[in-house]
């Protein structure tokens, strides 16, 4: 199941899972947006579309029943006022979405009893407090995303994969060498949403390679795309691909 499935990365992954012949569910808040973004017709459970809210655990239980893998792609998002300042709508602060909402998903997945693997897309920068991203809207988004990462790793789930992408681009994927790193050493590099979706799909299809990994994800546009399995090997090796390919 993919939560945040109508988002720009979530929709790419959900459609890729369907194209790969994998039975997938989309957890969404808005049927109208699901129809527009995911191309569903009935947009109900018969098409794998489940409606709910991650801040309300009761709406997650039915959707997770029988699911083997959960991909968490929900994220808080700051809005900008005319004066240039940022804010979060009530109930959608990073604390609500990136920590409590993420934890709701993890705990409900554990209670479902069938979930073997949880994949979480967090963000670059969670180990660097009080950056400008943390201060947007006074939300401390990266702090709460870090708490979400910790909760997942400590949950007891048999397998987890945590991906921390750099700045997200909406350009075409599959063209650049993807880089794995640690401790936010790739902080200023970027990666396409399509490549993030491809890494998630590869992690789902190759669970032995992606098991219990937490890594930064970025790309080098000056080098051609490489093997995604090699990316997981780099992620497990803390010397990582960033050591050889990126000027820090």
Automatic annotation (TrEMBL):
Residues 4-207 form the NAD(P)-binding domain. Keywords: Signal. GO terms for cellular component: chloroplast. This is NAD(P)-binding domain-containing protein. Gene3D superfamilies: NAD(P)-binding Rossmann-like Domain. Residues 1-24 form the signal peptide. The lineage of its organism: Eukaryota, Viridiplantae, Chlorophyta, core chlorophytes, Chlorophyceae. InterPro entries: NAD(P)-bd_dom, NAD(P)-bd_dom_sf, SARED1-like. It holds the Pfam family NAD_binding_10. The keyword Signal applies. One of its GO terms (molecular function) is oxidoreductase activity.
